[in-house]
Design goal:
Elements lengths: L1 H5 L5 H10 L4 H23 L6 H10 L4 H7 L3 H11 L3 H8 L15 H10 L1 E2 L2 E2 L2 H13 L5 H22 L23
Antiparallel strand pairs: 1-2
């Protein structure tokens, strides 16, 4: 276990060890594996177009982005924030930075280059449970589950803002690729019983 604490970026195997250690349920692990598949596929495609994304950081960030989600559901805490705090405590500051932005990107991010944070944020939005979906499908589901159920205009407006920001991010990512967002699902194998992304 000491090797996990000393590495700056956990390997895929180390990430699975952490998921088990923190009792992350199988359905969240399966979701995270699909986020990882999408993120790694996009990272490789973007790197082939001249980007400089760290595949190791993308893998770890995707696999660990929901490491404290169940706890967050129980405590109503922001699991992006608690995930970052846990990973910082474990010595994985860089991965904590990525996890911190998987729900909402920090304000003022305007570089031309695509960051690992942006890639994990976007990839997470394209996976509903374990299925690759369009942004339209994902945000329709989010509004149904979190906003319209309570007719909470504050939550509905927050989701609308997030949706608008995510479409801008999608345009940024796919302006550098030779396939469309709608074609993404045809490049990603469905979830199966194998581990890893």
């Amino acid at each position: 276990m000491n090797s996990i604490l000393s590495d700056k970026v956990p390997s895929v195997d180390d990430s699975y060890t952490l998921l088990k250690r923190y009792h992350v349920p199988d359905h969240i692990i399966k979701h995270s594996e699909m986020v990882c598949k999408v993120a790694v596929f996009l990272a490789n495609a973007l790197n082939n177009q001249g980007e400089n994304l760290s595949i190791a950081e993308v893998e770890a960030g995707a696999l660990l982005h929901d490491i404290t989600k169940m706890e967050g559901i129980k405590t109503r805490q922001d699991h992006a924030k608690t995930g970052r705090e846990l990973l910082d405590k474990l010595g994985f500051k860089r991965i904590g930075e990525i996890v911190a932005e998987h729900i909402k990107l920090q304000e003022g991010r305007n570089s031309v280059a695509i960051s690992e944070e942006e890639l994990i944020n976007y990839s997470d939005k394209r996976i509903m449970h374990t299925r690759v979906v369009t942004l339209s499908e994902r945000f329709t589901d989010l509004r149904r589950r979190y906003g319209f159920k309570n007719l909470d205009t504050k939550i509905i407006n927050r989701i609308r803002t997030l949706e608008s920001e995510t479409y801008k991010l999608e345009n940024k990512i796919f302006s550098k690729l030779n396939f469309t967002p709608e074609e993404l699902s045809s490049h990603i194998a469905p979830a199966d019983k194998s581990t890893g992304c």
